Amino acid sequence: MDFHISTEHQRLMGLVDEFVSSRLLPLEQDPKSFDAHENIREDLLEELRSEVKALGLFSPQMPKDRGGLGLTPVGQALLYERMNRSIFGPVCFNCAAPDDGNMTVLSKVATEAQKKRWLDPIVRGEVRSAFAMTEPHPGGGSDPGMIRTRAEKRGDRWLVNGHKWYITGAGAASHFILIAKTGEGLRDGLTAFAFHKDDPGWQIERRIPIMGPEEHGGHCELRFEGLEIPDENRLMEVGQGLKLTQIRLGLARLTHCMRWLGLAQRCMEIASAYVAEREGFGVKLADRESVQMQLGRVAMAIESGRLLTMRAAWRLEQGGKARPDISMAKIQVADTLHLAADTAIQLCGARGYSKDTPLEWIYRYARQARLVDGASEVHQMVISRAYQSQGRSFFAWGPGED
Asked: Does the pLDDT value for residue 383 go beyond 80?
């Protein structure tokens, strides 16, 4: 790997740092900045997005011919962690889940006509999107082969019936990507479709209450009862729904890691500032060995996560799928985010547990990291299979095998 950062990337990093520091961090201290679901309120978000667009930083992960900056995975890693130094950051830059992953996969697999209809409005920030895959038992979750929502071909249209839940952002989404069963094969029995919120034949049954703060649109339960989707809205070929899911989730898992590393660093920042000032029994907390050990442990964990994340991003750029690399980063960074938030709260005491800092917000948000886009146990299985298949070459320094 080459750790040299280009002049252009350094410029972009500086712009992101300045915007986050001057515009976003102050807003976190004002309760009026939040909506009822503990995220940035919509009118304020639109104001900030206009400012980001004026800086030329909106949807930077998209190709230049679609209005973005054409960031590669390495470029995304450099910028995303800086954006998420603020809890408001990613959504202001249009780099938050689920839109981030949906834009990426549509950019890669959609036809030009489909991109104009389904992708470009998301890139411009005119609409939001959702990815409808997860289902209640006995349907598909971590195992998409268990998906039961079915799409049946009727002439030039598909008729969809089924049940989805925990669909992130569905309450605010206009554009949806749906994964449905169209055959019986394990790897070729799923197909992906795009549909609009105003299409009849489906409904949101409820917005599911969760432990942590929510993305815009929440996490919703959906019911499909005769949704008709024209075949022109099918994404990729019939039976390639699992392939589309793998294309989307690979980089999406890694971009989660990039953002979570920013939150983990923010926790360190808050805790370090507090212990540098707070005294107890005549000694600054920062001078106590026990405090230094805790901060050192978190700092090392964050840096380990950054290295794993950047290596996975680099291997993606070399043309590999980097599945075990992404799984290792996902486990490490998810655990690190929880460790950073928990340690910072412990060091800040009552102030950390209160809402005077964003630490309690980050702490509640962090618990989902070990679940979303594959539980840690599933990723451990991925790593194990890769090691058993590759043997000693698993530890190669080069691009590696998938």
From this structure: yes
CATH class of 129-238: mainly beta
Dist. CA 215–CA 207, nearest whole Å: 12
H helices of 165-278, in order, are 241-277
Which pLDDT score is estimated for 278? 97
Do the domains spanning 129-238 and 242-395 agree at the CATH topology level? Answer: no
Tens-place pLDDT, residues 199-243: 999 999 999 999 999 999 999 999 999 999 999 999 999 999 999
Q: How far apart are CA 280 and CA 286, in angstroms?
A: 10
Crossing angle for the helix pair 359-366 and 323-348, nearest 10 degrees?
A: 140
Q: What is the DSSP string of 170-184?
A: TTT-SEEEEEEE-SS
Residue 138: asked if its preceding bond is cis (omega within 30°), the reply is yes
Q: What values do phi and psi take at 184, rounded to 5?
A: -110, -10
Q: What is the mean pLDDT of residues 274-297?
A: 97
The fold for domain 242-395 equals Butyryl-CoA Dehydrogenase, subunit A; domain 3 (1.20.140)
Per-residue confidence (pLDDT) for residue 399, from 0 to 100: 73
| Contacts with 11 (C-beta within 8 Å, 6 or more apart), sequence order | none
Using alpha carbons only, what angle is made at residue 238 by residues 97 and 315, rounded to the nearest 5 degrees? 45
Largest CA distance in the chain: 80
**Whole-number Å distance between alpha carbons of 60 and 72:** 10
Q: In terms of pLDDT, which residue wins out, 145 or 37?
A: 37
The CA distance from 130 to 169, in Å, is 6
Q: Retrieve residue 297's tokens.
A: 């442990």
Question: Does the pLDDT of residue 321 top 70, yes or no?
Answer: yes
CATH superfamily for 7-123 is: Acyl-CoA dehydrogenase/oxidase, N-terminal domain (1.10.540.10)
Mean pLDDT of 389-399: 89
Domain boundaries, the chain: 7-123, 129-238, 242-395
Tokens, residue 377: 């146990």
Q: At 400, phi and psi to the nearest 5? A: 85, 170
Average pLDDT of the chain, as a whole number: 96
